[in-house]
């Protein structure tokens, strides 16, 4: 039937084209065409016995009434603008003769071309500007197909081979010049239609999904289909020359939607190949006690993994695999909001990305007890407490207890006590309330390191201290530090786990020694504990001989009062009548048993000494000494 219609149209077209020339109203001239697309050229022929020549010129006006412009003996004219014109010719003795000229807009017809398999195409001409259309499937003049105006008609054509082709279509009217512009359409004929891919699905808001396609061919018509909640696929829309589609009017918070894209062959009116199936996920995050529960619902066919992004990020990645449809994220802190996004990964590499879902974590779980309290005594009445905290819990406020009585509150893991008493047994414990309002148990009590020091008669110092018990894994070792009176560290001795040590260092240069003990934990991350400082002033130990023998034999020839740590001295010797025989303030000078250069006789003499030690303490020493002279 279609063949009969086409042949009829061709015959009618031929009759229209041959219906020329066209004679003027009074039969004095004729034109080759009276209608055509701009630019449109008309050729005039004078019909005998009428003549237009040099002897009898004619005045010609082609564009009356638009433009009145007479030209003599001008037998052709090109119309540039569409419109209806009157072509007038003024013959000298006969007057005007005329004919109507219609110039049409030169519109390239709208066409739509779809590829088919087996090197075929299907053509639609949704254009009604012309009476008929000339189709040249190869744009080479053969074969041409003339079809009447019909916006819904579909024309199929099969190329003899695959490859690049150029299809041309132009319109014309019955009885008009065939000069209208062509629409050129390049197309690649192929033996089969490629299978498309939906490479990504992304939910952009609660009612909208964006689909991205791959392996899309130009001029192929695709059929997008949708299925809701594992239902049957239904036609949704046609896709043509587009690598992306936005789907609206959905309810992604209550449903999940699956899509597939079919390559459609209009010549056979069938889908030749379907893409992969990709689905959105009905995804939700809900806070439960101690975790955020992630629940999703989707079609798991072709799914290789479920990956989750989290903001703020956690310590480990979150993922799952089918048939899993939920998981609990326990890496959360209470009262903090976490936002999750589910990415469904398919075996072919496609991805489906959900909307973000957020939950604020909470827990009724009792938080971990504070541990590893370190105490550093910083002065005679002050100390600092520090402790460690499980990072999985976020304290809102700590409460510190001193001897089981509430001492103070702090938001930090440190507090100072400026009313500390060394001589009173004061111990500390810590608890806290976390940001969820849950209260920890009270920590084990920690008592400060208290150092005592006892000076012995020989100026050695016995140091003793209590065992430190504030740390979970205990003490690794104690260190004894010695400082001079200016605060400079003299020595540092590892005492191991001993709780007492004797300092027997004579150290003649430092009478004033300060001691303190450092406790180092087995756990290397714990801050050390520091004892009180004890200051010891060693005794000067003043002594002197009872006799001396000043006979220059190199043995016991001089006499003086001696001591340790002496800073200044004033030393005097008297005879029995109270006369001063010797006087010096030089620590290095002794009495040699003479007076004014003469040796004193044997006998008993009196001395007095005034000394000041390195600690600034003054001493007075007096007594008798016997002078003996060996013979």
Quick summary of this structure?
With 631 residues, the protein is mainly β.
Please report which band the strand proportion falls in: under 5%, 5-15%, 15-25%, 25-35%, 35-45% or over 45%. Answer: over 45%
Low confidence ranges:
1-19
CATH architecture of the largest domain: Sandwich
CATH class of the largest domain: Mainly Beta
Distance between the termini: 168 Å
Q: CATH-wise, what's the superfamily of the largest domain?
A: Immunoglobulins
What labels describe this entry?
mainly beta; Immunoglobulin-like; 8-stranded mixed β-sheet; 3% helix
Question: Could you explain how this protein is built, in words?
Answer:
With 631 residues, the chain is an all-beta fold. The chain has seven domains: 2-104, Immunoglobulins (Immunoglobulin-like); 112-189, Immunoglobulin-like, CATH 2.60.40.10; 197-279, Immunoglobulin-like, CATH 2.60.40.10; 282-360, Sandwich (Immunoglobulin-like), CATH 2.60.40.10; 371-434, Immunoglobulins (Immunoglobulin-like, Sandwich), CATH 2.60.40.10; 451-537, Immunoglobulin-like, CATH 2.60.40.10; 547-627, Immunoglobulin-like (Sandwich), CATH 2.60.40.1220. It has one helix and 53 strands. Strand 12 (132-136) and strand 13 form a beta hairpin. The radius of gyration is 58 Å and the shape is elongated. Residues 1-19 have low confidence and may be disordered.
């Amino acid at each position: 039937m279609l063949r009969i219609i086409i042949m009829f149209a061709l015959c009618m077209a031929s009759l229209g084209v041959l219906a020329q020339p066209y004679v003027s109203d009074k039969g004095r001239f004729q034109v080759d065409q009276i209608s055509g697309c701009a630019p449109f050229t008309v050729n005039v022929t004078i019909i005998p016995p009428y003549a237009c020549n040099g002897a009898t010129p004619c005045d010609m006006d082609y564009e009356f009434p638009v433009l009145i412009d007479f030209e003599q003996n001008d037998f052709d004219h090109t119309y540039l603008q569409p419109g209806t014109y009157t072509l007038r010719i003024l013959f000298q003795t006969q007057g005007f003769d005329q004919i109507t000229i219609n110039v049409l807009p030169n519109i390239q017809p709208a066409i739509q071309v779809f590829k088919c398999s087996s090197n075929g195409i299907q053509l639609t001409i949704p254009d009604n500007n012309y009476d008929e259309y000339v189709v040249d499937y190869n744009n080479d003049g053969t074969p041409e197909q003339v079809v009447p105006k019909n916006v819904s008609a579909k024309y199929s054509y099969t190329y003899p081979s695959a490859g690049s082709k150029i299809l041309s279509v132009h319109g014309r009217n019955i009885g008009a010049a065939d000069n209208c512009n062509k629409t050129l359409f390049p197309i690649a004929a192929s033996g089969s239609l490629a299978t498309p891919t939906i490479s990504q699905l992304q939910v952009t808001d609660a009612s909208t999904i964006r689909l991205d396609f791959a392996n899309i061919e130009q001029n192929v018509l695709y059929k997008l289909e949708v299925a809701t909640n594992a239902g049957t696929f239904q036609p949704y829309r046609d896709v043509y020359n587009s690598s992306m589609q936005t789907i609206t009017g959905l309810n992604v918070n209550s449903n999940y939607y699956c899509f597939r894209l079919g390559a459609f062959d209009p010549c056979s009116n069938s889908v030749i190949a379907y893409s992969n199936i990709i689905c959105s996920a009905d995804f939700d995050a809900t806070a439960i006690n101690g975790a955020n529960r992630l629940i999703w619902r989707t079609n798991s066919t072709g799914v290789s993994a479920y990956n989750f992004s989290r903001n703020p990020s956690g310590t480990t990645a979150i993922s799952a695999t089918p048939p899993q449809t939920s998981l609990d994220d326990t890496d959360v802190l209470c009262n903090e909001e976490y936002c999750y996004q589910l990415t469904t990964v398919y075996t072919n590499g496609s991805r489906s990305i959900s909307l973000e879902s957020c939950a604020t974590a909470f827990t009724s779980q009792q938080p971990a007890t504070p541990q590893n309290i370190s105490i550093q005594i910083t002065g005679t009445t002050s100390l600092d407490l520090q402790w460690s905290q499980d990072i999985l819990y976020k304290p809102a406020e700590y409460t510190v207890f001193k001897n089981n009585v509430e001492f103070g509150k702090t938001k930090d893991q440190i507090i100072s006590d400026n009313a500390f008493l060394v001589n009173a047994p004061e111990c500390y414990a810590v608890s806290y309330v976390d940001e969820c309002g849950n209260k920890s148990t009270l920590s084990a009590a920690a008592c400060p390191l208290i150092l005592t020091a006892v000076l012995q008669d020989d100026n050695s110092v016995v140091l003793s201290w209590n065992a430190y018990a504030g740390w979970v894994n205990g003490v690794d070792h104690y260190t004894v530090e010695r400082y001079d009176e200016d605060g400079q560290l003299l020595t540092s001795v590892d005492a191991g786990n001993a709780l007492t040590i004797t300092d027997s260092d004579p150290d003649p240069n430092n009478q004033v020694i300060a001691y303190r003990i450092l406790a180092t934990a087995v756990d290397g991350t714990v801050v050390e504990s520091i004892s009180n400082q004890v200051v010891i002033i060693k005794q000067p130990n003043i002594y002197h001989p009872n006799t001396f023998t000043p006979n220059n034999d190199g043995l016991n020839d001089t006499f003086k009062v001696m001591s340790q740590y002496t800073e200044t001295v004033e030393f005097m010797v008297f005879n029995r009548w109270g006369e001063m025989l010797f006087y010096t303030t030089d620590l290095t000078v002794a009495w040699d048993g003479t007076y004014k250069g003469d040796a004193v006789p044997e006998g008993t003499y009196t001395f007095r000494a005034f000394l000041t030690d390195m600690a600034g303490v003054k001493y007075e020493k007096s007594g008798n000494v016997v002078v003996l002279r060996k013979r």
